[in-house]
Amino acid sequence: MALRIMVVDDDQNIVEYLVNILTAQGYEATGAVSREQAVRHAAAQPPDLITLDMEMPGEAGPLLYKDMVALNGMSQTPFILICGLPGLHHAIPNAVATVNKPFDPEKLIGIIRDTFPG
Hints:
Layout: E1 4-8, H1 12-24, E2 28-32, H2 35-44, E3 49-53, E4 55-56, E5 59-60, H3 61-69, E6 79-82, E7 95-99, H4 105-115
Parallel strand pairs: 1-2, 1-3, 3-6, 6-7
Antiparallel strand pairs: 4-5
Keywords: Phosphoprotein, Two-component regulatory system
Domain Response regulatory: 4-116
Protein name: Response regulator
């Protein structure tokens, strides 16, 4: 069964780009461009991993993270943070990595593979 990955970013182009890359790698990828959309999708079908843009307008990344891990079955879900702020991963206990924009998609795939080996 393919890993379910949710891409959360306010930029629809980035969401589509990452969903396409992840799908091409064999992952089941979905995207969300707002807090409401992300929480709704995660509540309906919890992802195995979330990439989270920490600098979405009007959406505080750490608060969205808290909303997400409060959902049933998501307290241990790993997150890959996408941002340009150094040290922000310390605010997110489930962060397995931080990737700065612009990012290398191969680096992101490598992080996912390291997080879920085998």
